[in-house]
Amino acid sequence: QVQLVESGGGLVQAGGSLKLSCAASGRSISAYAMGWFRQAPGKEREFVAGISWGGGTTNYADSVKGRFTISRVNAKNTVYLQMDSLKPEDTALYYCAQGRSIWEYDVWGQGTQVTVSS
How many percent of the chain have pLDDT more than 90? Predict the structure, then answer.
């Protein structure tokens, strides 16, 4: 059974950067799409970014396009989310997810907190 463990969250000032990592164990991620979601206090979980199994296709929420970049290294069983030009509204618990396509996810990590101060 696959387990996803996120890391790299923290407190950063507006305009700063963070890079999140998601390490998978239990099975290779190479055959699966991977994604990032986030949930702010009092709000529903929302999609942030997704990447196909080979990395050739990516998609992003409009709110993060041009600021966030998702990538993967299958040999390391790890997915990344580079977040630049962070805004206070990016503050949330960020989750890694795995699925059959970049539109459907069924395995989730525990999350890592990102807090952006103004």
Answer: 95
